[in-house]
From TrEMBL:
This is Serine/threonine-protein phosphatase. InterPro entries: Calcineurin-like_PHP, EF-hand-dom_pair, EF_Hand_1_Ca_BS, EF_hand_dom, Metallo-depent_PP-like, PPP_dom, PPP_phosphatase, Ser/Thr-Pase_EF-hand_contain. Residues 385-415, 754-801 are annotated as: Disordered. The gene is ppef2a. It comes from Betta splendens. GO terms for biological process: detection of stimulus involved in sensory perception; negative regulation of MAPK cascade. One of its GO terms (molecular function) is manganese ion binding.
Length: 801
């Protein structure tokens, strides 16, 4: 008896200890999961904030340049530097453009080992192109121009809105943003099969920019569209825009791969992008478009718009003047095409008869200063327009007798054109939000945010049930939103003998993003959607990098976090002077010390990234005093950012270069009119002066000249853009493997394995030796064991989010 009681007490004691231990383990694990998720979220927010900040800067820059074009004397040097990017509707018939893009004089050398194309294309040639690009071969420029020219001819026959039906095939595959990541497209083809009569595809825009294989993706998609014009559909995205391409890498990629004929290829692609359809409708019920909608979106208007006139969606098209021969003439034209261009140039200087000041005064005024200066009263404006009309008509009659008199207008569009432009801008740039309503998208700088009420109203008006859009990177590759409550099948109540309606939530918007590892390896999955006759989307996720399949969740989060923190450190260092000023507002006694709260408040006030800087202090700051204060001077040294040897360069100029590096490079690309990659010293000076006006800051001629002299080391009077931008790139002095101030560190063995994997990945591999499950494991196409290889990947029948 006594022994039994003792054993029972001992058992209960052990049970209580086990339960307590289990509770502790559970509490620790929950904290671990919460911290890991917290790190994932702020890492994601860092990347996304940087991306949207860049897009906003690009739109602001383009608006500023457009402002200069509209309001400055046509003879000004600053205007001449940028005028060519606004010549979007040159005075040429399509037949004349086809002669300009003619490929027949381009010879293919015998040593060329890449694919050869004959037209009309066959499915074997399209598949061969995929295989060639997988093996890192390049298509010859003759075939590139020929393929693009055939694509342009086809796109001109297509409507603004593609109409697709699932009755001809069991399923339609829809892909989101690819952004130049060829490995993702190859993996999609490997897992899902290449386009065919039985396997139609819809590609939802943003094929280019950011990634290194944008032109290859375009050539693959265009080749399959030529082979299967009724089974491959391409929607336009916001990156199918030559202005956006200047900043995000596609222009540079084409010019580096096709040095001799790159300019013609880019011009033809500019035409092609403007002819891409705007959206696709599946079974009259599912709308597939790149960005989104707004409270003014009207499919009837979008079906009638002249989409090709919106060469860049960032600006309304110029008013066009039509000659008696039917030639469409834009208000900005190439001088070497039509002599009547001089008449158009003269009329521009009459818009604002009062001069804007000297060249020096131009450099040191802000955009607001300009807008105040150019205001004229209504009578002056009307008189100016009458004079402008008279001079233009007179000059046009003398220069070209068959030109019909037309109302001339530089950038003022009709209300109808402006409405169409806003709808296209919303279509390409908008994002959904959780709140009701429709507000301007100030984060990106273009488009709008639209809420669930706007979605429901739009779907109700057009008798649709689902919107599939892309445009936003999602960690899982997809995301449902804007759910609505609907009545399901009635259920019987056995106790009361009655039936009641059961409410369920049905998603109305699906965001789809197909570029995996978009920000960094392991940052996000990619996804594509299969849509059958039931119109229930089935989502397949994947990750194209083999490295991520070997990493644990902790290692993957840590790797991505370190990459995001590296980018953030560089941005913090680039804002050093502003941050010091902000710290000194809290440090009234000039001790060089601030509290943690003051440090976080100062950093947020300068960076405006809406990040939890107080929580991230352990990742960004370690130089604390004994009483918890932060030495902000030591902190800048601790950021471990290294720039070039810049002792001889004005520091304010240098910080401007660091902070606005992408904007400066974009202006360089614009100024480089012949796409040679070089600009003259004088154009270099004008670029910096243009930047100083844009940023509303003073940069002295002496500082610019010193920088130009130091860059032009061989004294040839020109500057290599790539070398200049690379020379002033900020880099972390600590390597990725030496750093790692994360909450959870990766072990030394993990570091060694990651380093070995990185080295192995960098080594060239024989053809077909890609990782198992990757795009090189088998020839693209339907795979009988695809289901087995999809183990570890996830598919979701998406009747609920």
């Amino acid at each position: 008896m006594g022994c039994g009681v003792t054993k029972s007490d001992h058992f209960h004691k052990q049970s209580r200890k086990a339960i307590k231990a289990a509770v502790l383990i559970q509490r620790w694990y929950r904290q671990y999961v919460a911290r890991t998720e917290m790190r994932r979220r702020y890492t994601w927010h860092i990347f996304q904030s940087m991306e949207y900040s860049g897009e906003q800067a690009q739109i602001k820059l383009y608006n500023f340049l457009g402002y200069l074009m509209d309001n400055f004397n046509p003879t000004s040097n600053e205007r001449n530097l940028i005028s060519h990017i606004f010549r979007e509707n040159e005075v040429c018939r399509d037949t004349e453009w086809e002669r300009y893009f003619c490929y027949k004089e381009i010879e293919v050398p015998e040593i060329y080992s890449g694919p050869h194309l004959t037209f009309p294309l066959t499915v074997e040639q399209a598949a061969g192109l995929v295989e060639a690009f997988r093996n890192k071969k390049q298509l010859h420029s003759r075939y590139v121009l020929q393929l693009l020219l055939e694509t342009w001819k086809l796109l001109r026959l297509l409507p603004n809105i593609n109409r697709v039906s699932t009755c001809h095939s069991k399923e339609i595959t829809i892909c989101g943003d690819l952004h130049g990541q060829l490995e993702d497209l190859l993996l999609i083809f490997y897992k899902n099969g290449m386009p065919s009569l039985e396997k139609p595809y819809v590609f939802n825009g943003d094929f280019v920019d950011r990634g290194k294989d944008s032109i290859e993706i375009l050539l693959i998609l265009f080749s399959f569209q030529l082979v299967y014009p009724t089974d491959v559909y391409l929607n336009r995205g916001n990156h199918e825009d030559h202005i956006v391409n200047l900043r995000y890498g596609f222009t540079k990629e084409v010019l580096s791969k096709y040095k001799m004929h790159g300019k013609r290829i880019l011009k033809l692609l500019q035409k092609i992008f403007s002819w891409l359809p705007l959206m696709t409708v599946i079974d009259q019920k599912v709308l597939v478009l790149h960005g989104g909608i707004s409270d003014t979106t009207d499919l009837g208007v979008l079906a009638r718009v002249d989409r090709h006139s919106y060469v860049s969606a960032l600006r309304p098209p110029k008013k066009r003047h039509t000659s008696s021969t039917g030639t469409s003439i834009d208000s900005d034209m190439d001088e070497d095409v039509w002599s009547v261009n001089r008449a158009f140039q003269r009329r521009g200087s009459l818009t604002y008869p009062k001069p804007l000041g000297t060249r020096n005064s131009f450099q040191n005024r802000s955009l607001q200063d300009f807008s105040e200066r150019i205001k004229v009263n209504m009578e002056d404006e009307l008189e100016s327009r009458r004079r402008r009309q008279s001079v233009f008509n007179s000059a046009a009659n003398k220069s070209e007798q068959d030109l019909t008199p037309a109302a001339s207008c530089d950038s003022v569009s009709s209300d109808r054109t402006k409405d169409e432009w806003r709808q296209i801008l919303d279509l390409l740039w908008s994002d959904p939000m959780t709140q009701d309503g429709c507000t301007p998208n100030e984060v990106r700088g273009g488009g709008c945010y639209w809420g669930p009420d706007v979605t429901e109203d739009f779907l109700s008006r057009h008798n649709m049930q689902l919107i599939i859009r892309s445009h936003e990177c999602k960690q899982e590759g997809y995301e449902f939103c804007h759910n609505r409550k609907v009545s399901a099948a009635p259920e019987s109540n056995l106790f009361r003998g009655t039936e009641h309606q059961r409410l369920t939530r049905v998603p109305q918007v699906l965001t789809l993003f197909s570029a995996s590892n978009y920000y960094d390896v392991g940052s996000n999955r990619g996804a594509y959607v299969k849509l059958g006759p039931d119109l229930v989307p089935y989502v397949i996720q994947y990750q194209a990098s083999s490295i991520t399949r070997e990493l644990t969740v902790r290692q993957s989060v840590g790797r991505t976090e370190r990459s995001a923190l590296r980018v953030l450190r560089e941005q913090l260092f680039a804002h050093k002077s502003d941050l010091i000023c902000a710290f000194k507002q809290f440090d009234s006694e000039n001790t060089g010390l601030v509290s943690l709260n003051d440090w976080a408040a100062a950093v947020e006030s300068v960076m405006r990234l809406d990040l939890p800087f107080r929580m991230m202090r352990s990742q960004l700051v370690s130089c604390k005093t004994g009483d918890g204060l932060i030495d902000y001077n030591d902190w800048f040294n601790e950021l471990a950012i290294k720039g070039p040897n810049t002792d001889h360069i004005d520091q304010s100029l240098l910080e401007t270069l660091y902070r606005h590096r992408s904007t400066l490079e974009t202006i360089f690309r614009i100024v480089d009119t012949d796409n040679s990659g070089f600009i003259t010293i004088e154009d270099f000076r004008q670029t910096w002066k243009l930047l100083s006006v844009y940023l509303n800051m003073e940069i002295t001629d002496e500082a610019i000249s010193d920088l130009a002299v130091n860059i032009d080391r061989n004294n040839d009077g020109s500057i290599d853009i790539d070398e200049f931008m690379e020379a002033f790139r900020l880099t972390d002095k600590k390597s990725r493997l030496e750093r790692g101030r994360s909450m959870f560190m990766v072990t030394a063995s993990d570091h060694s394995r990651l380093q070995l994997e990185a080295e192995a990945e960098a080594r060239p591999r024989p053809v077909g030796a890609e990782e198992e499950g990757g795009p090189g494991a088998a020839s693209p196409g339907p795979d009988p064991s695809a289901a087995a290889r999809e183990a570890g990947e996830r598919g979701h029948a998406a009747n609920a989010p």
